[in-house]
Specification:
The protein has two helices and four strands, in the order H-E-E-E-E-H. The protein has 138 residues and is of the alpha+beta class. Strand 1 and strand 2 form a beta hairpin. The chain is elongated.
């Protein structure tokens, strides 16, 4: 029984770590949602993406969540007419990041829920381990 509890704790911990990394990526995207290029016609910040994969943990035999890749979103940049902007091209257009605030906020909400779910598993496992130790003492 302790092996299965330890395995559950390992899986939940890997989920916490993966979601923590995902939150960092979402936060970076949100922080750079208005970051344009520094010079005229330069490319702005490009939205980052994260991909997960399952990896077998040989010690516990459990499937763990691991970050497979941190990539970039290849959707086109938004373009707005702002002739006085330092990053405007000769025609007066500025390239803006391909970050959609609504998508990032939805991702952040999903990350938060996934993180909380994994945290609940950790709390439940700790509680069960405590009860098991109490039973062994009696």
């Amino acid at each position: 029984m302790l092996d299965s509890l330890q395995s559950s704790l390992t899986v939940a911990s890997s989920g916490l770590e993966a979601q923590s990394m995902r939150m960092r990526i979402v936060s970076e995207n949100l922080a750079n949602a208005t970051s344009t290029g520094r010079v005229a016609g330069a490319d702005p910040y490009q939205r980052k993406t994260i991909t997960f994969d399952a990896a077998m943990d040989r010690a516990s035999g459990a499937q763990l969540a691991k970050v497979k890749e941190i990539g970039v979103d290849t959707t086109p940049y938004r373009v707005e007419y702002e002739p006085g902007h330092p990053a405007a091209d000769k025609a007066g257009y500025v390239k803006l990041p391909n970050v959609n605030m609504m998508i990032e906020m939805a991702d952040m909400r999903e990350v938060n829920r996934s993180y909380e779910a994994n945290l609940q598993v950790v709390k439940q496992v700790r509680s069960m381990l405590g009860m098991t130790i109490d039973l062994l003492r009696s």
